[in-house]
Q: What sequence folds into this?
């Protein structure tokens, strides 16, 4: 069974610090990796995607992928209270567009 | 780009009635779309995958006769919850699949069945 694992949290981080969110996946055939942010009562919104090993940076966000370790992470620099949300990791397998979802990590940024 | 709308955004209905939720992609076309359900404080649960012009594929435990999906075009899909009951109260979210597995989500519909 294909699985995506995330620590449910909550992860509490002081404002201005770096928040580090982690995700592991079971299927080595996974091709694409996504981080979505979901505020309470809202639908998920895409933060970043990554396809290749290494780091990908977009503003305060950095996604890191290590396919050998089957591990993907999201770093949020200079964390803001508005970053408080649940972060969902999702992994894509092939061309049917379906994603395997983690249960999400609740992040709390303390002012 | 990649704007998705859902209508209604929230609905309250009596037990036994049917509710139709509409999902539209406003500025793009896509063949494949997904319907999810999310109960309070729980993770996203995929209900079904739908390709335009084909019958939807339902996840295990999701009754296809209760949750009717009509995927009529590359920009419109509907989910009808038939004979709704209080246990169907949930947050229903649609998404459209694009290249490289990226999904674009609608804003969701909150259904409350009395």
A:
């Amino acid at each position: 069974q294909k699985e995506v694992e995330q620590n449910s949290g909550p992860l509490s981080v002081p404002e201005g610090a770096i928040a580090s969110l982690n995700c592991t996946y079971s299927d080595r055939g996974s091709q694409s990796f996504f981080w979505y942010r979901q505020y309470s009562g809202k639908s998920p919104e895409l933060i970043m995607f990554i396809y290749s090993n290494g780091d990908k940076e977009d503003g305060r966000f950095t996604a890191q992928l290590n396919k050998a370790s089957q591990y993907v992470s999201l770093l949020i620099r200079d964390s803001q209270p508005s970053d408080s949300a649940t972060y969902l990791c999702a992994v894509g397998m092939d061309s049917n567009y379906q994603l395997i979802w983690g249960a999400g990590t609740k992040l709390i940024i303390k002012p | 780009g990649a704007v998705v709308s859902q209508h209604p955004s929230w609905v309250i209905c009596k037990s036994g009635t049917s509710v139709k939720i509409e999902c539209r992609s406003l500025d793009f076309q896509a063949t494949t779309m997904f319907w999810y359900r999310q109960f309070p404080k729980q993770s996203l649960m995929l209900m079904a995958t739908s390709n335009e012009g084909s019958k939807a594929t339902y996840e295990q435990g999701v009754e296809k006769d209760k949750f009717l999906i009509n995927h009529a075009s590359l920009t419109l899909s509907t989910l009808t919850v038939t004979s709704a009951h209080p246990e169907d109260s949930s947050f229903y979210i649609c998404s459209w699949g694009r290249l490289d597995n990226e999904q674009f989500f609608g804003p969701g519909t909150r259904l409350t069945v009395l």
